[in-house]
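Support reply, case 0932

Customer input (verbatim):
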Amino acid sequence: MKIMSTNCVIEQLQLEHFTDIHKLYSNKQVRTYLGGVPSNSYIEASFKGMLEAPFPNTYLSITLKETGEFIGLVSIDEYHDKELYELSYQFLPQFWGRGLAFEVLTQVIEEGLNYLNIASIVAETQTANKASCRLLEKLGMKKVQMLERFGQEQAVYELRKNNEPTRQIIALSGGGFSQQNPSFIDEYILQQAQTNERVKICFIPTASNDAQGISRSFMQLFIIVKQHIFC
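Our regenerated output:
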């Protein structure tokens, strides 16, 4: 894969790019929200893994079209659950704030979803990395999940091909639904539905033997509270 954007050349990572990648991984500013600067052996192993990764895992070296300077690395590879593909990026600090990341990632996403034949792409970033969160939102990605990984709060964003809707199923077993105050299960479900779109809710209480108390609790939380949150 080789893509030409307005100001950059985006091309498949090659063996000769090792020095550039080592420089990138050794930069403290770049690695602030990525677990710090790794050891040389880790960088070497990671680079080897990138070169040997099977399709559709893709690793791209980014250079300036005008000068040929290396500015960063962008990848689309298997996400943690191995069922989705993740967009990742690292750019050298001297090229921050110039709109280059947005330019490059826009091209990579557009080409990647089609060339790699994948239906959606996710990106995960620390919530403390405000600039990265703003960039993903500017790219049109939607926040779909909050989680903790590596001891830090992470936000997961997703962009689906042709704006296909994201569907999520939350399965419950063993009771506790709408019975506690506060109900952490109910609050979690509401957090997953943070959207400006119309939300449809269906409650079938037969498992609770049509208990009126459960029905009232559900209506109070998922109808009254929902209107406050989403309207």
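We compared this against your earlier run and they match. Two observations from our side: Residues 126 and 154 are 4 Å apart (CA to CA). The beta strands are 2-4, 8-12, 58-64, 70-78, 85-91, 120-126, 142-149, 152-160. Please reopen the case if you see a mismatch on your end.
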